[in-house]
Design goal:
Layout lengths: L2 H17 L9 H4 L9 E4 L3 E4 L4 E4 L6 E3 L2 E3 L7 H15 L8 H5 L23 E7 L6 E6 L4 E7 L9 E2 L1
Antiparallel strand pairs: 1-2, 2-3, 3-9, 4-5, 6-7, 7-8
């Protein structure tokens, strides 16, 4: 291989590698949002829930299994497989008389901030969010073994998660 061919191959490899990288700056949301007053899209309600004004959806501020205490989420998120997570939230809805459910992937994506990562949420709205994959209620078209989750580090949606994996989840209602 001559020097000219080697440069073309090297350039192609370099372009392929850089095209797959996340070129965003590692900006933490706590650098962008400096107070509880910065959450323009959210209206905080009693009991650890928040209203997302643009969509009119109410989200829990903490993952299921955690409690909202003194502006923080405390405790350990409950991690269940996809089917058990859906059933768990359905049981809460039945017992509470409120129509709680696991958010769809599009609904869950509403809380994520594309200007920041690690996790990609306003820390004053969703404090202490663990960087993890969170279940959505969305299904993958096929095969039936996979479901959709959202990765809180960047807010990326993945629809190839085995439904048998145990992951945390949030709740939402209209």
């Amino acid at each position: 291989m001559n020097a000219s061919s080697w440069r073309v191959v090297s350039l192609g490899v370099l372009m392929a590698l850089t095209g797959c990288m996340d070129n965003r700056v590692d900006t933490k949301c706590s650098d962008l949002y400096t107070s509880r007053m910065d959450s323009h899209d959210f209206e905080h309600l009693e009991g650890g829930i928040t209203l997302h004004n643009p969509s009119n959806l109410i989200f829990t501020r903490c993952a299921v299994g955690q409690r909202f205490v003194n502006f923080k989420c405390v405790g350990t998120p409950t991690k269940l497989n996809w089917d058990d997570a859906q059933n768990y939230v359905q049981e809460i809805a039945t017992k509470s008389g409120e129509q709680w459910r696991v958010p769809t992937r599009k609904e869950f994506a509403l809380i994520f901030e594309d200007r920041c990562i690690n996790p990609a949420v306003n820390p004053y709205v969703f404090p202490n969010m663990e960087v993890a994959n969170y279940w959505t209620s969305s299904k993958r078209m096929s095969p039936d073994a996979f479901r959709c989750s959202i990765y809180s580090y960047q807010g990326s949606i993945y629809c190839r998660q085995s439904r048998k994996l145990e992951q945390p989840f949030f709740m939402v209602r209209d």
